[in-house]
Amino acid sequence: MIALAIHYSVGLAIALLIGLATGWWAWGARRVRVEADEPITWPPPHELPVPVAAPAAPALAADDLTAIKGIDAEIAGRLRELGVTRFSQIAGWLPGDIERIDGALGPFKGRLIRDEWIAQARLLARGDMETYHQRFGHF
From first to last of its 139 residues, what are the pLDDT tens digits of the chain? Predict the structure, then answer.
């Protein structure tokens, strides 16, 4: 190791001098302070506009959930308590929603899958009554 330092001593000395010069130039140079003849005036802050409340979304009428085979008045009431009032909501259920709703149905658990509520709701939400009647029969 010492042999390497002796062999490269000239290069190391030059690198040290370059490093010191760069450090002096970057950190040791005197910074000039600018003095203004008159005080700095900042423009007044702009007034922020008052936020306007967005118009409320029109309330959509609730669908008759009993049109879905397997949903009677009691189950429709339970679904309303859970915030489900439209075919489009049922049609958009994800696996987590299915588990949550199915668990909240109490003694009616399993009916959601067995009676294909989601498939029925998709057809009813689209208004595709012909396909609904072919697949699930009349109301």
Answer: 778 778 888 888 899 899 888 888 877 666 666 676 777 777 777 777 777 666 655 667 889 999 999 999 999 999 999 999 999 999 999 999 999 999 998 898 999 999 999 999 999 999 999 999 999 887 6
Domain ranges of the chain: 65-136
Q: What pTM, to 2 d.p., does this model score? A: 0.56
Compute the distance between CA of residue 63 and CA of residue 102 in angstroms, rounded to an integer: 20
* Residue 40 to residues 35, 36, 45, 73, Cα–Cα distance (Å): 11, 8, 15, 74
